[in-house]
Amino acid sequence: QVDVAAMVRLFGYVDVTDTAFIVAVLSIAFNPLFWNVVARWEHKTRALSQVFGSARAACYCLGAVILLLNCVRSHCFTEAMKSQPRLEGWDYHWTYYSGLAISAVGTLFVISSFLALGFTGTFLGDYFGILMEEKVTSFPFSVLDNPMYWGSTAIYLGWSLMHASPAGLLLTAVVAISYTIAVLYEG
Questions:
Q1: How many of the other CB atoms lie within 10 Å of CB of 47?
Q2: DSSP letter string over 29-57?
Q3: For the segment 103-146, what is each residue's pLDDT rounded down to a tens digit?
Q4: So where does this one cross the membrane (predicted)?
């Protein structure tokens, strides 16, 4: 049996009607939707490859746009946390350092995923016809499916704890949900 009273109390700190919060939710939901729609469109039409003159150039451009959108998403996430109250009961060193450790693990998963896949493997090269020679099964893929998604989620969770932010925790849940939907869509 789950005691939801603590969650209700915690999220009583979150104003979901705050403009910064709404913008953060929209940016979080938009990113995986955008890259999945664009990648599927490219796979069916090869339109980006034609516009950019090659599949590789098109993939690199889409990757750059995805990176830019991720920066926007992180900025919106941070602004939403700053616009909402902190949870004073969490504003301690142990919470900060726990969040820092979780973010570090998330960063390890994201960076090691990128290094294992390379740029085109990370940024949907398979939809452009740029295929890897074999499936990557080394770390972090040997530990976790979709380590880049869950590493990114861990970074947001750690960031939220470091800022003692109930709004950040709720936004982290939105990140996890949108990545779960993306995984289902991609699979």
A1: 12
A2: HHHHHHHHHHHHHHHHH-HHHHHHSSHHH
A3: 999 999 999 999 999 999 999 999 999 999 899 999 999 999 99
A4: 20-39, 51-75, 95-124, 165-185
Tokens standing for 99? 């969040």
Q: How far is CA 148 from CA 20, 59, 75, 109, in A?
A: 26, 18, 19, 6
C-alpha angle 10/11/13, rounded to 5°?
A: 85
pLDDT recorded at residue 10: 67
Identify the three-state secondary structure at position 9: helix
Is residue 19 classed exposed, middle or buried when 0-12, 13-18 and 19+ CB atoms within 10 A define those classes? exposed
CB 30, CB 175: distance < 8 Å: no
On the question of pLDDT at 77 being above 90, the answer is yes
From residue 51, how far is each of 23, 44, 48, 167 by CA, in Å?
31, 14, 5, 41
Whole-angstrom distance, CA of residue 98 vs CA of residue 91: 12
- Burial of 16: CB neighbours in 10 Å, binned 0-12, 13-18, 19+: exposed
**Domain coordinates of the chain in residue numbers?**
4-186
Query: Percent of the chain having pLDDT more than 90?
Result: 82
| Residue 36 CB neighbour total at 10 angstroms | 16
Residue 2 has pLDDT above 70, yes or no: no
Answer whether residue 88 shows pLDDT above 90. Answer: no
